[in-house]
Every structure is written in C-alpha cells, then in structure tokens.
Model the fold of this input.
Amino acid sequence: MLRDPTGRRILRERPRITSKSLDVEKLRQMPPGTLGRVYAEWLAREKVSPDTRAEVRYVDAGEEEAYVLQRYRECHDFYHAVTGLPVIREGEVAVKALEFANLGLPMCGLAVGAVARLKREERERFWKVYGPWAVKAGLQGGNLLCVYWEEELETEVEALRERLGIERPPDLRETRRRLREEKRKVPPPDAQ
Done:
C-alpha cells in the first residue's frame, strides 16, 4: 500500500467500511450498475452487512499492520460484489484465490486449501474455471487494497472492473442452478 498514492492516502486517513460509514439504504437508491448499488444489492442477496466482519485482534506487528488487516477484511465484500461471487464455500474459495493472487497474503493462500472440502464437481469447476480466473484477475489487476472503495460508489461497476483488470467470472449461482436442472432431467442409470 505504501508504494501506491491511493494506498498511502488510505493508510493516512484510515477509513472504515461499516454500516455507520456507509448508508446502505442510500446505496440501494443509487443508479443501477453503480458500485454502490451493486454492493447494496449483493449485501441484501447474500444476507450480510458491512458489519459482518469481526474486528482484527491478536496482531502484534503494530497499529498500521492491524489497520491493513482490518481494511482487508472490510474490503472483502466489495471483491464479492464486483465479481458477483456468492457467499457459499465455492464462491469464498474463488475470492480467496483472487485475493491470494492479487495481495499475496499467506492467509489467503491457506484459505484456498478449503477447495479440498468442496464436493467433487465443485472442485473440478474450481480448477477448470474459477481458479484460473482468480489467478489471472489477481495477477493482472492492481492492488485491491489500494482501491478507495468509498470513493468509487458512483462509478459504473463495469468501468471499475475494466480499470482494475478484473474480468467478471461466470455467474456461479446460475451455473449451479443450471446444473441442478440438468441433473433432474437425466433419469438415473438403473431407470433406463
């Protein structure tokens, strides 16, 4: 963050992303397609709030490092909103892979290990679709911690994705819904 002008400003100003600093109801009233509206709709769809993230504790490195970790936690839902990935295990693993590729935080890399707990078809989808997408998006984009999300709320999310170098992945909820429907249509092997 220190290498980036916006990152330095964030470290100086230390903004927080909470329901006190963001008026979610006001964000819902923003024009469709803006980051604020997309973020508010994502929060409602996933039944979370800006306050879902716990305060950072047990950081012995110092006040600035504790703030960076707090900021990381509070920005996480913006990554979900910008990518459209839901708060289900499969979506979380994909966002953690994006964070690891982009930020290089060891805890994100360890979290990607949760791919082992996914169902076989989810693991296969991660390795074929969402894993490669996350690595590409994370490596080609700028540091996500250096985005002053609060100042981007009126930005069209498509323009923001383009500026950040984040291509939107295939809609995970839609993919899962379509696959469930296909399974219902196929008769079991012993019924043939």
User: Anything to note?
Assistant: The chain has nine helices and no strands. The two ends are 60 Å apart (CA to CA).
